[in-house]
Amino acid sequence: MSAVIAIQQLSKTYASGHSALRQVDLEIQRGEIFALLGPNGAGKTTLISIICGIVNPTSGQVLVDGQDIVRDYRAARSQIGLVPQELVNDVFETVSASLRFSRGLFGKKPDPAYLEQLLRDLSLWDKRDAKIFELSGGMKRRVMIAKALAHEPRILFLDEPTAGVDVELRRDMWEMVRRLRERGVTIILTTHYIEEAEEMADRIGIIRKGEIILVEDKALLMRKLGKKQLSLQLKQPLASLPGSLQGFALELDAQGQVLRYHYDGQQEHSGIAELLRTLDEAGIEFGDLQSSQSSLEEIFVNLLRESA
């Protein structure tokens, strides 16, 4: 895949002296879903705002499909749809009028059929003649998504799109994201719901204190940094680990009934066979046995802790 967004040495320092971004280099591949993760104040929204032409960078360059976001602002911005964190709508407009206006802002010819399908996809067709102030918070969020897509952008930014919305809207939104990706739209999202990034994203970027500390294919990241765990439910509780088990990376729960073995799934030899043989030799019997792997959230927390 080719890069649809290319960022080089991007920095932003505000008048207050706060350095929000520091020498950021990043490429977003055409047609992928890219999740940008980071704690509050890490620089996610500043980075998105610069790419979308809302905030001017202090230094560096952003190319959107080969167009410089500063020098070729209109051409670059026309490729982008943005759903911001905050609900910002012309509340006295009707839903349909708001979409038509958003489409016209980018010089797009009227296309009632496209806007109708967009409203239907977002379960807004029945609300098309309602004034925006009459809608619920979830419906207003749907209108913002529709407005971001009204001019048929090839790149869509979703900045905390499901914060404070109901489960139904969240499910509908991710179904829509999948359909957009199938049509070749590049999706960049920030989210506090890391399980969403784990489910949806192709690649993960992590930003901390204005610096990108990691960009990795999600599946590869999970394989490389996701620790595996084997849990054994003991038939008889143990007061402590016997000496023969001290060489294994084991944890005994407070009740002495569950033995947890941590191992690296990337290694050719997990050590499980040796552990089970040692348990048998020690006369320690177990009933249930379960394996699990670290979630993306656990990997994310550990990475931030290590880079602190």
Furnish the topology, listing elements before pairings:
Elements: E1 3-13, E2 19-29, E3 33-37, H1 44-51, E4 59-64, E5 67-68, H2 73-77, E6 80-83, H3 95-105, H4 112-121, H5 137-149, E7 155-159, H6 167-182, E8 186-190, H7 194-200, E9 203-208, E10 211-217, H8 218-225, E11 228-234, E12 250-252, E13 258-263, H9 272-281, E14 286-293, H10 296-307
Parallel strand pairs: 3-8, 3-9, 6-7, 7-8
Antiparallel strand pairs: 1-2, 1-4, 4-5, 9-10, 11-13, 11-14, 12-13
What would you say this structure looks like, in words?
The strands form three sheets. Strands 6-7-8-3-9-10 form a six-stranded mixed sheet, sandwiched between helices. It has a four-stranded antiparallel sheet with strand order 2-1-4-5. A hairpin with a 5-residue loop joins strand 1 and strand 2 (19-29). It is of the alpha/beta class and 308 residues long. Helices cover 32% and strands 28% of the residues. It has two domains: 3-223, 3-Layer(aba) Sandwich (Rossmann fold), CATH 3.40.50; 227-307, Alpha-Beta Plaits (2-Layer Sandwich), CATH 3.30.70. The mean pLDDT is 86. The chain has helices at residues 44-51, 73-77, 95-105, 112-121, 137-149, 167-182, 194-200, 218-225, 272-281, 296-307; strands spanning 3-13, 19-29, 33-37, 59-64, 67-68, 80-83, 155-159, 186-190, 203-208, 211-217, 228-234, 250-252, 258-263, 286-293.
Concise account of the structure shown:
This protein has 308 residues and is α/β, with parallel strands linked by helices. It has helices at residues 44-51, 73-77, 95-105, 112-121, 137-149, 167-182, 194-200, 218-225, 272-281, 296-307, and strands at 3-13, 19-29, 33-37, 59-64, 67-68, 80-83, 155-159, 186-190, 203-208, 211-217, 228-234, 250-252, 258-263, 286-293.
